[in-house]
Amino acid sequence: MFPVDSLPAAPRGPVSREAARIAASLRAPSPRPEPARAEPSRIERTRAAAPRVDILAFALGKLRLAFAAAQVMDSMTVSGARWARLLAMADTGTLAASGLPLIELAARMGLATPRGTTGTLLLIGSGGKVRAAVLVEGELQRQEAVVEALPPSWRERFGPGAHMLDGVALLSDGARVAMVDLPLGVAMKRPAAPASEADTAHLLVRAGRTQMEAVRVASLQSVTALEKVPGIALLPTPGRPARRMLLAFGGEGEAVVVDEIVGLAPQGRIERVGGLRFLATATGRYRLLEPAGTQAPRPAPSRVLVTAPEGEARSALRDLVRAMGHEVRLADDPRAARLMGGRFDIILFDLDAYGDVREAGIAASDPGRRIGLAAGALPAPPGFDAVVKAGDEVALVLALLAPAPR
C-alpha cells in the first residue's frame, strides 16, 4: 500500500461535459443576494394616503364612468314602458311637469349608443335639494375609490363629452373610471296651473240661514270642529247640529262658525249683485260667505303629488286638488312617494292600488305630509298622517286643510 500522499496525481487534461455536470451538482449552492426593494414612489405614497370615497360606477358603451355617491340623492331602476316614457321626456329636457331638468347621459355626452329597455333614474343634487334627473343605461355598482385629477390625454378619448368629466377614480382592482360632474343650474320654474282651472273649488255650508252659502276653499286657512277649539264651551242649541265647524280664513285670521258643511259646490262663476258676491252654478246661486263681505286673502298654495294609477279617478283627484288652488303633479309609481317626497308638501296616495304600501307603509324622513285614500275604513299605515275614504270630497278637503303634525 502506498501512503495517501505518495499516490500519483491524476492525469491532467480536458474534463468531459458529463463530469462537469456531476461536479456542479455536488457543489453547495451559493447564496444569492435578495434584490433590493425599491422605495415607493411619491405618487404611490400619495395614493396610499389619499382618502377613499364612495362612487357609483357604470358602463356606457365601451366607456367606464362613475358618479360621486354624495351627488346622488336617490336612484330607481326602471324598465319597459316606463323607461320608454322617461326617454321620451328626456328628448324634451324636463321630467314631466316637475321642472327638473331630465338628462339622458349618453346623448348629452355625444355617444351613439343604442337605447335599451332598462336603465336607472338618478336624482342628482346637493345640500338636500334635487337639482336634476339623469338617465343611465343599466345598473350602477357602489365601490370605494381614490379620485385624482383627470389626465389631459383622457379628454381626447371622450370628445364632446369631455367637459362633463372632473377626475379619474382608481378602483381597488387597479381599474380606472372617469368621474362625471354635471354642470347643474337652478331647476326650471314649475309651470303655473291654467287660470281657468285653479282656485275654483267651493264648499256649500249652512250658517244660520235656510239657504246654503258658498265658501271658496282656496281662501281657507283651516277647518276645525268647534268643540276642539280651546276656550270654547258649547251648549246644546235646539235646531242646530251638535257638530259645528270653525272656518279660519287666510290673511288677518278672521273666522266664521258654520252649522254644517253640506258638500262640494258644482263648478260655476262669480257674479256681483249690488255689494254682494255670488257663486252662480247650473243648480243654483249661492251667496259667498266671506269675512266682512270681502274676498279673503288666499293662503300660500301647497305642492301636492298625487300617486295613483293613470285613469279617470286620478284625473278627477287632480282636478279637485288643483281647483283648491294647489300645485299638482302626478305619479303612477309608488316609489315616487319616497323619492320625490322632499319636493312636495303633501302626497296623496291610493292605498287600494298598492297593497304592499298599505301593509308596510312608507319610511320617509322628509317633512311632507302623506294622506292615504282607501275605499274602506283603514288605520293610517306607518309614515302616513291620515287615511281618507276614496270619493269623499269633503273629507279630502278637510284633510288637506288640517294642520301638519308637529
Q: Summarize this, please?
A:
This is CheW-like domain-containing protein. The protein is 18% helix and 33% strand.
How would you summarize the topology of this molecule?
Blueprint: H1 17-26, H2 42-49, E1 53-60, E2 63-68, E3 72-79, H3 80-92, E4 102-104, H4 105-108, E5 118-126, E6 129-137, E7 141-148, H5 152-158, E8 165-171, E9 176-180, E10 202-206, E11 213-216, E12 220-225, E13 245-249, E14 255-258, E15 260-264, E16 268-273, E17 276-281, E18 284-288, E19 303-307, H6 312-323, E20 327-331, H7 336-339, E21 346-350, H8 355-360, E22 369-374, E23 386-389, H9 393-401
How would you describe the overall organization of this protein?
This protein is of the alpha/beta class and 406 residues long. It folds into three domains: 48-180, no CATH class; 202-232 and 240-293, no CATH class; 303-401, Rossmann fold. The chain has nine helices and 23 strands. The strands form five sheets. The chain has a six-stranded mixed beta sheet with strand order 15-10-11-18-17-16, with no helix packed on it. It has a five-stranded mixed β-barrel with strand order 1-2-9-8-7. Strands 20-19-21-22-23 form a five-stranded parallel beta sheet, with helices on one face. A hairpin with a 4-residue loop joins β8 (165-171) and β9 (176-180). The longest helix has 13 residues, at 80-92. This is CheW-like domain-containing protein. One of its GO terms (biological process) is chemotaxis. Residues 34-44 have a biased composition (Basic and acidic residues). Residues 23-44 are annotated as: Disordered.
